Structures are given as structure tokens and as C-alpha cells.
User: What shape does this take?
Amino acid sequence: MITTKDLSIALQSLSRARSYATTIILTLGITLGALVALFNLNYQLLAAPLPYPDEDRLYVVNGNLYQNKQLRLENNSQYPALVEIYKNDSFFESSALVYFWEDVVRNLSGSPRVNVSYVSPEYLQLAGAPLALGRQFNTDEGLDSRVPVAVISYQTWEQMFRRSPNVLEQSLQFGEVDFRIVGVTAKDFIEPQIYKQGRQTAVWLPWDFNDTQVERRNNWRGFLPFRMLTGKLKPGIDPASAGHELSTLMDAQYQAALAGRSSSVERSVEYRLTPFANKILGDSATRTLMVMGGTLVLLLIACANVTNLILSRAAKQQRNMAIQVALGAHKKHIFLALLCEIGLLMLGAALLSLLLALGSTEVLRVMATEQIPRIQELTLNWQTLVFALLCASLLALFFSAIVSRQVNYRALNQMLQSSGKGSGVQISPLIRKVLISSQVAMTSLLIVASLQIFLQANRLINQPFGFPLDNVQVMTLNIGNLRSAPTTERESYLKAIRQRLLEHPKVQNASLSLNTPISISRPLWTTSLSHDASRQNPVMAKTTVVDENYLSILRMPLVAGRHINAAEFSDNNRMMLVNETLAQQLEPDGEVLGKRYYWRGDLPYQVVGVVRNASLPGKKEPARLFVRGINVSYPLLVLRHKPHQPLSTTEINREFAEVNRQYKVAELFSLEQARDLLLSNDRVSVWVTTALTLLALSLAAIGIFGVLSYSVQLRRTELGVRMAIGARPATIFYHTLIDSLTPVIIGIAVATLVVVPLALWLEQSEFSIETSLWGWLLPPLFIIGLTASVTLLSVWKIINKPAVYALQGTG
Assistant: This one.
């Protein structure tokens, strides 16, 4: 039993070895802190309940379209299907419609763009949204009521209204409608991230006011993104069965809508129920578990270092142990004394780890909002505290047991009788080799994994896109109340806007389009091409509506044919361009120039050019179709500005106002910003793997140096004799290195036995990691180079001085 006196003695002993205590606390505290922080994060993701009432019964309903039993559109729903499911009370105790969008607040200075969610009244109730002011939507503001009210977030209240207590007397204008503010959500409300990680709704508006066109609201053949249904399943309802029944009902409506359309394509729809937790987490838990595995390996490497330090200290304390044995101490007493001292060190490491975990929690909440789900809920919980203390306790028992097994109690009894000669505690050669081999094996495993991920991420970051990204800005347009205006009127406005921008002194070229190859928020439009008007065997393609300036602005090279010129564009000629992927899908030999294909109608379009494939990092280039036209409902402008002269939102809105004040910039970004967003996860991978590699190498260097230094000290006399009889310093270093490399090679071999089957498994798994030859070769080279360096450092004090110093045990 450990007493207060034992703790006091251990504390006094450690106070006389401050550098030793500090080294162990820092080494284990930092590595254990990383593990504790990752445990805290993974507990939040995998085990902590969602902060919503009855969270285990909350589901998201999304539609999927299949063609010939192949998934064509995912998470795209038919508008009338969502409404019908909402009105069907067979499966859900309560359900809500939600449409995630962005819009411009027209009655506030600067016309800020905000995230808007169009919802039915039940949505905020399902999320259990607490309020700081006012109320939620009520049933009188439900479907088909068209009551213009709004609920705003606490952040919107804070940023746009400076927490004015009179905010409930104010309104927000979207389009031509003024929405009266009736509520403000509480500061601690955590919105369900069921659409996109990091997206925070600024304003909730009634579902009736969403911008879906009237003809699409009753179109069972159309599939739309961003729209979904959330619901709380009735008790006892099986979600898989409910999804199957809903799919059957909705598919029957879809087939009825397709009746009379001749096609060889078998089409069907599916409506799947996805738990809130799955929708929010995605695959993020897999990534965080992998990082946690890396930090666990770091901790194990650190433990090998600490084992060597503790054994070395025990060897220095053997005289004290001998005195204790002489006074009647048994093995149990020696063990408890060791446990007491080591336990204090582990407690210090645990406290440091908790402080680091707390700091990392705050950093993650600020910096990783868009990368990691549920990060705003992250706090240092009691489960993490228990985990840290449990780890510290297990480590204390482990280190104490290791040292206790190395104590030769019979030798301790004889030490005082032989005037202190002999050794009661000594690190055996086997233990020294095991320490080095284990460190090398774990370091090799970690470095191999880190380097493979690093090299792949770095390759993606430096991969050319196939077209230049500099000096290009992209903007989506908000068209206000012009959505119901005639198409010809909106087209004339857009052409006038393009002309004003072309005349702007900062602009070199401007284009009207629908999307770009890389985008921040707008999904690509998928349509089909066929060889004849019967629409048999259609080929799917990501479609971009372009004008005559689009390809020249993006400088996407042609591999065959030409662009559509301005005259052909004005004459409404039916022309299009395709990329190499689509050309190969249309014709086995890729020869499509001059050929005609049917697109969205009974008249064919002629292919006049083939565009070189873009090369987006980590993405297979899809079939792309570029067809002439102007999209008047969801217009997008692409600008090439003069070098270092980008346009601001204010400047662009000023030009829009000269044509029609209803047009506002909804979103403005450069292609370089879109690239950075696309590569953000890869950049994080580079930083994380670099940090893990450097930490692993540093810990391995410290550990191997500690073991080799101890070994060299034991061989000091032997080495001195060799030097005295003529051995050169290089020879001493060479033989010491050969001895050191034996456990290193064993460690590398053990790591190889683990890595090879793991690599074979990865090739068959869903993880898309392209391994590199350098990723396999560099780790053993690093380890061997590291061993040579620390071996030289270990023997330097001996071989750099005359042999007499080694023989005398001085210098």
C-alpha cells in the first residue's frame, strides 16, 4: 500500500533529478496529449449523442436516380415527391422540408450574401432550436400559407443588427419580398450539418418562398439538388422498410410521368433514409481514427524512449535499493517505491496532456470548422479525463513492472557486503536490442504510412489543372424579382452586363456561362447525348452552357476542331464542343468532328471542336459537353482581369446597377481560390504527415541515442583497449555501427512484415491511396542514416580523444 510518506520520498527523489523528470513529463505529456486530443475528438464523432431531441430517430430523405440500374444522380430529389412524402404521415411522427440556398439581402448596406434555408415550420422544432428572442415558425406559416416571416441566427443578429433588442421590429428583403423577423436562435444552438460541413444558416425562411420555378414544382421528371426532407420516424418503424415503401410509391409516380416516352433506358428512383449521424459525419471518422492511430504509434515510440531513461535511472539508484534491501525491504516494497516515483511522473504527463488537449480543442474549434463535423460541440469531457488518467496508470504499471523485472535482488543483497561492487540493476543486451528494434519498427510503420499519404497529397497539390488559373474571377448572379420575367428580357440584360464589363478598364474578357470546371458551390449540370432522335443508348455528360468567349477566357486548349465564333453564336447555330472523354464515349475511335448528336430535343447539334481534358487533382475527368447558349435563370459570369487588378463586389454591383438593379453578385471567387478549396484536405494531409514524420524521427533519434550511449558507456574500457593497441577512430565507429545496425535491421524487417499485407489490403479496399516507390524506399534509408548519425554521436567523445581517457573512465 502506497502511503503519504512514500509519495513524499518519491517527490524528494525526483526533485534531485529535475532534468530527468522534466524530460519524461515533456516526452510523454506531448505524445499522450496528442492521443488524448484525438480520443476526445473521436469520442465526439463516434460516441457522443447528437444535441437534438430523439436524435436516434432523426433521418434525412434524399432521392437518387438510376438508369439501367446504374446510379446517375445522387442526392437529387423530385420537388413534388418531397412534398408528397411530407404530407404522408405513415412513417414519420414529424417531418420537415428544407432547401439550402444563398441569397442577397437587398435592404442592408452592401447587399450582403447570406446562407438561407427555406424550411417548413417543423424543421427548427426537430432540431430543438432554442431561441434568444421571439419564436419559431408556427403552423399558420406552413405550406401554401405564404406568410413572409423569418428567423435569424444569433450570429446574424450579432453581425448585422449588433444585437439590437428591437430586431423583431425589423425585416429583411430577399428579391421583392420583405420578411418580418419573428425569432433569433440562441447562441448555443448547433445547426445540423446535413447539407455541407461548415455551412451555417444565417436566415430561415418559409418553404413557400424558395426560388424553384412553378413548372418544376409539379414536374415528376425533374431532379433538383439542395432539397431534402428531414423527419422523426415513428417508434417501431424500420428505416430500411420505410425507404423501400417510399421508393415504391415515388417510383410509381415517376413511371407514370414517363409514360408515352420511348426509350431503351430503364429509369427508376429511390428514396433513402439516412440517419442524421451518418449524414453529418460522412467519412470524417475514418480520417480522424487514422490520425489517432498515428499518434498512438508516436506514444509507443516515446514509451520506448522513457523505458530506457527509467532503466538507466534505476541502474544509478541501485545503491539506494541495496540499502533498502539490507534494511529488510522485499520485492513488493521495491516495486511500490518504483511505482510511486514513476506514478508521479505519469500523473505530471497526464496533467500536461490534458492541458494540451484542452488547447488543441480550442484551436480545432477555430480552424477546422469546415473540415471536421461537430467541431463546435467539442469540449474536454469526463470520458477524456478518465481516458488520460487510465493511460497514465497503465503506463506507470508497465514501466514499474519492466524495471522491477530487471532488478537482481540477490545482487543487491551482496552489493553492500562487497563494498558496492557488482550490479543489481543493468539493462541487458537483449532489452537494449528489443528497445531499438521496437522503436525502429514503429517508426518505420508510421513513416511509411505518412510518406505515402504525403507524396500522394503533394502530387495532387502540384498537379497541373490543364488550363491556367491566374487572373480569372467567377461570380454567380442573384436576379432578384426577375425570375418570372420573359427569357428574352433577361437575356438582353445579361448581354448588356457582359458588354459593360468588357468595357471596364480592369477587364480583358468576360463570358456568360453556367459553371466552370472547378467551382466552390455550384454543382455541374448533367444531361445526355444520343446518336438519333429516339434517344436510344444516351451518353451522360457534365454540361456547360457557354458563349463565344468562355473557352478563350479559361484558355482550355483544343485537340481538334475550333471554337464557336461570335457570328455563329448570334445566328443561333446548333453547335457544341466536347472533351476527349466524351468523344471516346460517343465514338470508339474518338472521331466526332462534324458529326451530329441529339441533345434536349428533336434537332441535332454538330460537334465543331474537341477540348483537351482538364486534370483536376484526385478526380477522374468526366465527360464534358460545351453547348452554346445563355442561362438566364442561374447565370454565371467569368472574367479575365488584368494582372493584379481583380474586381471587387462593389465595383461589379455598380456595373450591374447601370443595367438593372435587380442583379447582384451572389458569390465572387477566383479560380485560384476554388483550387485552394479543392486542395484544402490535401494541404492538411501534407502538414499532418510532415508533423508525424518529424516527430517520429525525433523520438526515434532520442531513443536510439539513449540506448547506444548506455551501451557505449558499458564498453568504454573495451573501446579504449582497442584504440590503445592501434585501432583507428574510423574502425571503432565502423564496428560500433555494425553492432547498432543489427537491431535496426530486425526492426525494419518486422515493419516490412506488417506493411506488405497492409499494402495488399489497401489495394483491395475503398481507400484511394496511390503508393509510391519512394514511399517504400525512403523510410529505411532515413532510419539507417539516423542510426549512423546517433552512433557517431554516441562514440564521438571516446574516439575524439586519446585512448587513455577511455581507459581511465574520464573526459
